[in-house]
Amino acid sequence: MPDAITEAKIFTCSQSTELAKNIAAAYGTSLGNVITSTYSDGEFQPSYEESIRGTRIFIIGSTNPSSENLMELLLMIDAAKRASARHITAVMPYFGWARQDRKDKPRVPIAAKLIAKMLEAAGATRIITMDLHADQIQGFFEKPVDHLFASTIFLPYLKSLNLPNLTIASPDMGGSKRAYAYSKALESDVVICYKQRAKANVISHMELIGNVEGKNVVLVDDMVDTAGTLTKAADLMMERGALSVRAICTHPILSGNAYNKIENSKLEELIVTDSIPLTQKSDKVRVLTCADLFANVMHKVHHNKSISSQFIM
């Protein structure tokens, strides 16, 4: 007779506490007990306050800046390994540092590769994440990676809007694959923005490929940082005759004066997930939870069931 599957335990890093509570509730359990001690110089030490020997544990933590978020996740993985956890799954709703997935100029790091190796060195035996900035980051890992798509969250919402003359838009050439996948699911047209950057986060020129006149446009992207691209694209599309412009972005980094840009833009609304907690409130920002998606996948992973139904893009 095979051994019965023992119940998994779910823990959280401090930056993802609210989301982790929701994931645990959707999973049907409560969060495990972890305390963090902090030294006067800022150094910190997480500690599991219950036995995890021989169990599968899920550690939930997005690795958005500051770098302490990543460090906390690494320390919790290392502590779990040394406490003899049997399986250690790092649940990273947002995989930070993913924009550095290649050398785009001489003498720069490939940070996404480095992060992958750090997670594995710490002791992670599996990674669960959502909407990586670049799909090929999965190849940086030697351990299994479950790459989930937020389209399972966004598509039902978009369909509920019943927008006539719907057109899906990509804010840049790199997101065209994602835009085409959404357009196929929604049976809509596609337009693409072509942009040139003066430097990181600064757009020098943007042009529109396709017709948006008389259309209700939905911009699709994996993350929104300064919101410069989205707001510029929305203004451009409204100038070209669009009826309305919305944006769906999985990860709401929203740094700098992003909230002001959104409020002052012609965006109807920005729809995001709670993979990263919002730092401000905005009437234009709508948050859809990813807790049920992660809880469902975590449950299936623990019970060795197929998760292929979660991959619709």
From TrEMBL:
SUPFAM superfamilies: PRTase-like. One of its GO terms (molecular function) is ATP binding. Its EC number is 2.7.6.1. One of its GO terms (cellular component) is cytoplasm. It catalyses: D-ribose 5-phosphate + ATP = 5-phospho-alpha-D-ribose 1-diphosphate + AMP + H(+). SMART domains: Pribosyltran_N (SM01400). Keywords: ATP-binding, Cytoplasm, Kinase, Magnesium, Metal-binding, Nucleotide biosynthesis, Nucleotide-binding, Transferase. It comes from the Bacteria. CDD domains: PRTases_typeI. Residues 9-123 form the Ribose-phosphate pyrophosphokinase N-terminal domain. One of its GO terms (biological process) is 5-phosphoribose 1-diphosphate biosynthetic process. It holds the Pfam family Pribosyl_synth. InterPro entries: PRib_PP_synth_CS, Pribosyltran_N, PRTase-like, PRTase_dom, Rib-P_diPkinase. It is an enzyme of class 2 (transferase). This is ribose-phosphate diphosphokinase.
